[in-house]
């Protein structure tokens, strides 16, 4: 696809809009003017000229055009007007109407909340529906989620922070995975050294947090699959948190138990005995053929076993992750997954929509979002929404990613009082997240403002091990960041 951006600077916005409809297409942005005849690529024109907006799409079979004469002087509004005009042409071209309208950002609820604060909920809902072309069902979802997110955000302290601990190892690599996680087959031998250094980094981070006067509120141990570690290694990492941080204000500690095939009675016992209440066991699907198709070497029976074991061990706050749109899954199959989850009765269920990133091994066979895969996944997500509401779950956080099937969303649903605070804090960017481990990104947030700065850890375990001292030094930036704002 060739995208012409002429007389304005909304390159990013227009390219993102094209991606809503053609997520996997190579898009070449051209700034020069000049009509081109159709060759083998769709031509998209976005022009601001003589105080009017003109948008045009030329394909092999048709030419579609629209013009907006009354253009706002405000740049943001002008960009919105252009996006709406182009959106209209794409809907005509494809017959597909994305439910989040022209919204391309990852945090629609954050925008909704900002509008609520400035102008009230009615204005926010109307703006979403009328100006951003968000469907009524997604407006309701955003409003409902915002209510719960806002209540959680209120609990963040002025200098509160959350700790993220990364365990970037997995038994095997799922075909849709785009994380840096390494299979233990490839990187398992690095684990002992990795754990030694991770424990040191946790201790060092605790010193930095203390010096900066920060208060630990939540901890999330994720990955990867933290339960890839042995029970003893897990115990050392969790101990390192309790031994080094002041945990008197910590209200939540989550360990992602992830892949059911890594869960053992000993590991659950270690997690529980260290005071961790919340774990996540992620079936992704309860259909064994789909599990095989995505390269997860476990069965749905193992998920059920892991869940029963976790209950026996005494866990009272368990999340389950499932994914809509997995290769070879069907609407009936997805319903079956939901039914199994309801039977196992977790406290929260996170419904992801498959997102196909370039870094994954999965080859996306569809041409565009509006093909049958997009429609199927949309039906799956609609089914989940209805069923979850009927079973007493409510949405409490929501985010979107690029290249999601059907341009949909990931939503965390929970029973009243079982929301994961960390998920909200990180998505909203409410407060600082200090990250330890390979692939971790520390994100510092100004206590009374919006300034955000990041510190990146090395991505891969072998880099983390080799560059550890140098990487640790970067954490001192946390102190200089807070000195600026205290
Ligand atoms: S379990 Fe998660 S992190 Fe590990 S390979 Fe699968 S998707 Fe990636």
Summarize the structure.
The protein is of the alpha/beta class. The chain has 17 helices and 18 strands.
What this model shows, in words?
With 486 residues, this protein is of the alpha/beta class. 42% of the residues lie in helices and 21% in strands. The chain has 17 helices and 18 strands. The strands form four sheets. Strands 14-15-13-12-11-10-9-6-16 form a nine-stranded mixed beta sheet, sandwiched between helices. It has a five-stranded mixed beta sheet with strand order 2-1-3-4-5, covered by helices on one side. A hairpin with a 6-residue loop joins β17 and β18. The longest helix has 21 residues. It is globular. The chain starts with a strand and ends with a helix. 44% of the residues are buried. About 2% of the residues have low confidence. The protein binds iron/sulfur cluster (SF4). The site of iron/sulfur cluster (SF4) has 11 residues, from loops. The site of iron/sulfur cluster has 11 residues, from loops.
| Percent helix range | 40-55%
Major sheet details: 9 strands, mixed
Q: What Rg do the Cα atoms give?
A: 24 Å
Strand residues, percent: 15-25%
Low-confidence stretches are 363-370
Separate helix tally? 17
Name the bound molecules. iron/sulfur cluster
Which fold name is given in CATH as the topology of the largest domain? pyruvate-formate lyase- activating enzyme
- Overall 3D geometry? globular
Structural features:
single chain; 486 residues; alpha/beta; Double Stranded RNA Binding Domain; pyruvate-formate lyase- activating enzyme; 9-stranded mixed beta sheet; 5-stranded mixed beta sheet; 18 strands; 42% helix; globular; binds iron/sulfur cluster
């Amino acid at each position: 696809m060739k995208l012409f951006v002429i007389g304005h600077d909304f390159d990013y916005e227009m390219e993102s809009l094209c991606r809503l409809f053609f997520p996997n297409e190579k898009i070449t942005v051209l700034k020069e003017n000049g009509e081109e005849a159709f060759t083998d690529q769709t031509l998209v024109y976005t022009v601001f000229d003589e105080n009017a907006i003109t948008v045009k799409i030329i394909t092999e079979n048709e030419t579609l055009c629209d013009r907006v004469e009354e253009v706002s002087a405000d740049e943001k509004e002008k960009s919105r007007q252009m996006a709406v005009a182009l959106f209209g042409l794409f809907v005509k071209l494809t017959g597909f109407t994305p439910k989040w309208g022209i919204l391309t950002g990852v945090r629609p609820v954050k925008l909704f909340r900002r509008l609520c604060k400035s102008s009230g909920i009615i204005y926010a809902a109307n703006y979403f529906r009328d100006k951003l072309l968000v469907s009524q069902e997604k407006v309701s979802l955003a409003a409902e989620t915002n209510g719960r997110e806002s209540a959680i955000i209120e609990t963040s302290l002025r200098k509160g922070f959350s700790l993220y601990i990364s365990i970037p190892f997995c038994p095997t690599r799922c075909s849709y995975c785009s994380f840096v996680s390494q299979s233990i087959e490839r990187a398992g031998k690095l684990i002992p050294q990795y754990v030694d250094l991770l424990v040191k980094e946790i201790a060092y981070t605790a010193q930095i947090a203390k010096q900066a006067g920060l208060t630990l509120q939540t901890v999330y141990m994720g990955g990867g699959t933290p339960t890839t570690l042995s029970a003893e290694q897990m115990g050392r990492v969790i101990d390192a948190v309790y031994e080094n941080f002041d945990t008197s204000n910590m209200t939540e500690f989550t360990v992602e138990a992830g892949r059911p095939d890594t869960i053992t009675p000993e590991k659950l016992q270690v997690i529980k005995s260290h005071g961790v209440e919340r774990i996540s066991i992620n079936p992704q699907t309860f259909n064994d053929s789909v599990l095989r198709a995505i390269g997860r070497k476990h069965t749905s029976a193992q998920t059920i076993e892991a869940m029963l074991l976790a209950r026996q061990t005494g866990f009272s706050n368990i999340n389950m992750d499932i994914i809509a749109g997995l290769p070879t899954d069907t609407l009936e199959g997805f319903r079956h997954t939901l039914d199994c989850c309801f039977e196992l009765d977790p406290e929260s269920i996170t419904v992801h929509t498959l997102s196909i990133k370039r870094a994954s091994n999965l080859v996306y066979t569809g041409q565009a979002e509006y093909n049958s895969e997009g429609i199927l996944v949309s039906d799956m997500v609609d089914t989940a929404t209805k069923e979850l509401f009927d079973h007493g779950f409510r949405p409490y956080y929501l985010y979107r990613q690029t290249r999601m099937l059907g341009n949909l969303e990931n939503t965390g649903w929970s029973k009243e009082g079982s929301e994961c605070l960390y998920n909200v804090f990180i998505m909203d960017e409410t407060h600082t997240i200090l990250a330890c481990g390979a692939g971790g990104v520390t994100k510092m947030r100004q206590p009374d403002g919006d300034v955000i700065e990041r510190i990146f850890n090395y991505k891969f375990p072998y880099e983390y091990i080799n560059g550890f001292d140098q990487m640790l030094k970067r954490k001192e930036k946390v102190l200089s960041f807070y000195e600026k704002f205290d």
